[in-house]
Amino acid sequence: MPSVPEGSSDEEQERANMTLSVSTMVEAVTKGIEAAICNVMVNGRSFTSPSSKHTPQWRRVENEELQNEKSMEPRKHHDFILGVVHSLLKEKFDITQDIDFINHKRASAADVQAYEQEDSPGPDTNALTFDLTQNHSSLWNGKVLNILLCKLQAQCEEQNWPVKKSDNYILNVLCDHYKRLCTVWRNAQPKLGTSGSLKLPTEVEARLLGQKLQIMKES
After folding, report:
1. Residue 2, pLDDT score
2. Which of 34, 56, 141, 212 has CA atoms 20 to 30 A from the CA of 219?
3. Which residue in 160, 165, 156, 149 sits closest to 89, CA to CA?
4. Residues forming a β-bridge with 198
């Protein structure tokens, strides 16, 4: 804190007080900016207006940019992004391959409804869960995917990845992964047979084994 020697004038005292006020203001503004940046990276929030990003015109522009980005990239760049996305999903959802996702505990209907009605902050960043009854564009799933996107882009900056991609590109990869995981999860749920009876667990396991073998062949 600035000190004023004894015997100084009122003008000097006022100047010292002003210096202190400016210093305090700068510190407060700096802390506010740091908090906002942290909120963006951790909670997946964006400064861009959500409504502006969902207009048909904006989607067309994004699709064109995405196709251009894909058409110009080497295959190894795409493989690199697939690898880091898979690593993040493995970390966040405790899976090593798609078939493991059958054990995913989906978001509760109550939590999803509360978020859609703006009565809750939404998905827990430390325990992410998808709403597997809806597609990737739902409010809840969109939030989860955005959190994953921000996490990946933060890693890209921190680790100085050799391959850097746009948000739109990485989000597209995440959405494709969600569709695959959601399909695996839904196929594992008990289903009614042709006779109207519920399929037994052994029948479900046999179907999943067939899916797993197919995935292994394609990988």
Report:
1. 45
2. 141
3. 149
4. 192
Q: Where do the H-state alpha helices sit in 124-166?
A: 139-159
- Radius of gyration of the chain measured on its C-alpha atoms: 25
192, β-bridge pairs? 198
Residue with the two structure tokens 């008990």? 190
Q: How many residues does the chain have?
A: 219
DSSP 3-state of 116: helix
What averages of pLDDT result for each successive group of 10 residues across the chain (219 residues)? 50 58 49 43 40 66 86 93 95 92 93 94 94 95 96 95 94 95 89 61 56 59
Distance CA 97, CA 147 (A): 21
CB 130 within 8 A of CB 148: no
Q: What is the 3-state secondary structure (H, E, C) of 90-103?
A: HHHHCCCCHHHHHH
Q: DSSP code of 198?
A: B
* Integer Cα distance of 186 and 201 in angstroms: 14
